[in-house]
Amino acid sequence: MNKVLLVGCGHMGTALVESWLNLKTYSFTVVDPFNYKKLKNKFNNKKIKILNNAPQQKEIKKFDIIIFAVKPQSADRVLSEYKDFEFKKNSIISSIIAGKKIIFFKKRLKYANQFVRIMPNMPALIRNGISCFVSTNNLSIKNKKTINYLFLKVGKTVWLKNESQIDKATAVSGSGPGYVYALINSFEKAAQKLGFSKKQSRDLVLTTILGSIYLMLEKKKEPHKLEKLIAVKGGTTEAGIKYLKNNNIDKIIYKTYMSAYKRAKILGKKN
C-alpha cells in the first residue's frame, strides 16, 4: 500500500484527489487548515483522511509520497512546518507549486532525498490535462513509475531532461489554456460583429474548434495538411489564412510563448 500525503488542497489538489479515489493500492491523507471543513464534507466516507495540521514525526515516516500543492506565497511558511522532519527512506518529495524550483525544497527539507517537480495544467481539473515532470537524478525507476501513474489519472505526462525546460513547458502547456481562452474570446467577439448572437457565436466557435481537433486526432494528419485540404485556391479559407500569415501569426504565437517563458524565469529566480 502506497501512502500519499497531499499538503494543500485547492482546485488542483481536489481534482487530483477525486481522480485517485478508486485506487485500491493507495491511501491518501490531506492537510489543509483553510479548507478543512469543506474537504471533510466533500470526502466524507471516502477513505481519505483530512487533517487541519501537519502530521507528527512518527506519522510523516509512514508516507511514501508527499505532494506539496499550496499557493506559491504560502510555500515558505508551510515548508517550515516540515523542515525538521525525517522522511521515510526512499520517499518521494514532490511539488506542483508554480515557480518553486527543486532547490527551494532541498534548502528547506534537509532530510529529504528524492525530489520531483510537477507542472499540471488547468484541464487536469477534468482529467484531460498534461503534466510535465523533472526530478533529481537519484529518483528511482520505481518511484518514477509510481508518481507518473498517479498523474496519468488526470491526463498525459511528459518527463523533461532538466529543470530549465519547466519554464519553457510553463509557457507552452501551463499557460497554454489561457491563450486558448483568449483566442476563443476573440473569435466569439468577431462572430458577433458579423451579426451572430452571443449564443450562436459560442456554438459556432466552440463546435468548430472541437470538431477540428477531433478530426485531426482521428485522421492522424499534420495540421498543415488538413489546412491545405480546406484552403482551396481562390476560396474563402485561403483568403482568411493569407491574412493571418501576412500578419505574422507564427511570430505572434512565438512571442507569446517567449513572453511567458521570460516571466517564468524571473519568477523562478525568487527561490
List keywords for this structure.
271 residues; Rossmann fold; 2 domains; 8 strands; 15% strand; elongated
The helix count comes to 12
Order of strands across the biggest sheet?
Answer: 3-2-1-4-5-6-7-8
- Portion of residues in beta strands equals 15-25%
Average residue-wise pLDDT: 95
Spatial separation of the terminal alpha carbons: 34 Å
What would you call the structural class? Answer: alpha/beta
Radius of gyration: 22 Å
Q: List how many beta strands DSSP finds.
A: 8
Shape: elongated
Explain the overall architecture.
By secondary structure, the protein is an alpha/beta fold. It folds into two domains: 2-162, NAD(P)-binding Rossmann-like Domain (Rossmann fold); 176-268, ProC C-terminal domain-like (ProC C-terminal domain-like fold). It contains twelve helices and eight strands. The protein has helices at residues 11-20, 36-42, 57-60, 75-80, 102-108, 141-152, 164-174, 176-193, 198-219, 223-230, 236-246, 249-268, and strands at 2-7, 26-31, 48-51, 65-68, 92-95, 114-119, 129-135, 155-159. It has an eight-stranded mixed β-sheet, sandwiched between helices. Strand 5, helix 5 (102-108) and strand 6 form a beta-alpha-beta unit. Helix 7 (164-174) packs across helix 12 and helix 8 packs across helix 9. The longest helix has 22 residues, at 198-219. The two termini are 34 Å apart.
